[in-house]
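Title: Prediction job returns without error message
Component: structure pipeline
Severity: low
Priority: P3
Assignee: unassigned

Description:
Job completed but the reporter wants confirmation the result is attached to the right record. Sequence as submitted:
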Amino acid sequence: MLTELRIRNFAIIEQLTLPFAPGFNVLSGETGAGKSIIVGALSLLIGERASADLIRTGAERASVEGVFDVSGQADIAALLDERGIEVEDEQLVVLKREVAASGRGRAWINGSTVNAGVLAEVGRLLVSLHGQHEAQTLLDPDSQRAILDAFAGATELVRAVSEGHSGVAGIRRERNDLLRRRADAEKRADYLRHVAKEVDEAHVVDGEDVRLEDEARRLENAEELRTLAAAITAGLEGDDGTVLQQLASIHRHLSTIQRVDPTLGRLQELYDSAYYAVEALARELEDYEGTVELDPERLDEVRRRRDLLYRLGKKYGPSLAEVIEAGRQARVELDLVDSAALDVQQLDARERDALTRLGARAAELTSLRTAAAERLAKSVDEVLPELGMPDGHLVVRLTHLPEIGACGAEDVEFRVSLNVGHDDRPLARVASGGELSRVMLALKTILARVDHVPTLIFDEVDAGIGGRVGLQVGETMRRVAGSHQVFAITHLPQIAARAHHHILVSKGARGGVTTADVAILDGDARVHEIARMLGGDPESEVSRAHASELLRSSAEPAVKEVPAEAGTAPRRQRPRTR
């Protein structure tokens, strides 16, 4: 559950630390005091989209931080462990979100930096937010189906059906792609055979064009190459004035120098290296001259081969590697014409197996939904009279689909009849805003039995109701608080009086800037606020008596309704504000 919320420079809030208690917490205050801002801060904390517009005037950044007690919630601890986030003493989780004036945001869980997606993933396990907007989503068939599946405990089976449907769709795409490629190959068969034959008969080798170019250049210049090699060889080791003869003369002078100065022995090493290098050069050139042949026939052959490769490159290249790949691809497509029939048969067999598995899972899901639809409708019918709709009746209709889809074999539709003698009709055509909110509350009351999210937040769920219906709504929310921490924003004194803990939001100004403050109410302060909400003079004896009566008629104290393991929080503790 949420034990503490810290807000800084968010909207009109400068700085606020607000403790929360187990059971039913209610937030009240004048219109525009900032009640919804606190809910907005919580929404940001659990992953809603961030905006620089949220930052308080004059501040550089806004931050929201929430402390959650997750004792006994192994699923949350397991998720955090998967994300590499440590849980302090295995019971405290701290979420923090920050938005800078530049629009950039950051998020942390227990001090570890995370992205908004991970924050939202964890936040959804900790807090469930229900407002007027969500009541409208109840009109969406996908939301209705999700509610039924949650009630049926079919979430994992729905995922299995979705995966099975994706598998079947993948096989069908693979088969369609195969058939398309075979049809294309059949249309191009003659061309493909020509390509494969032309490339195969050429016996193309990657890099061959470069080697042929080098060979052609040598053959075309063979006479000149031999002449040059012979001239260099003669200059190195001929009969008169050659380099080797000059080196021999140099050797005699070098020997004379060394006899006079023996320290110049290293010069002999340099001389030897030079002499042997020139001698080796002469031998290499002499051998090279012998290898250079005047071969017009080979030159013609090289030229023809080079021209062939050039033409193939123009058609299928430009590189020889691309020519080779074109031939290979042509053979693959031709093989497809012959082998596709067998491959299609194999894919058909895979599709039949996948459809069989999908059908079995979908049938199991249909069975669960059918049983759950009846139970859910009956359970909601039992709650609707308590919410001021004594003749209310919910029908969960399952409509069989011609083909199993990603969400199963049927559509789900919620239909209601709110008056005696009227047939059930779709929610959108029957329910007003207030009625829709109450139907949503009825559903949430039922789902609370299977919902493991510890904290439920109801924002303006009392829209369109009043009087005794308000008392009934408050009583219902108090009962839900027996298994969850409930936090509600309300304008109705009937609901506020049913809360275990009452928080007042008021608006003031500091330094010429509007700010919001909060106070936890008890005793006379709470009587005063209930009297104000009743619409009379909160100082009058009549209003205060009425407020006191509302409070006395509320349900038993919170300590009897809140599970012992939920923990406690000081009721008289006042939030720290500045």
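Comment from assignee: result matches the submitted record. The radius of gyration is 43 Å.
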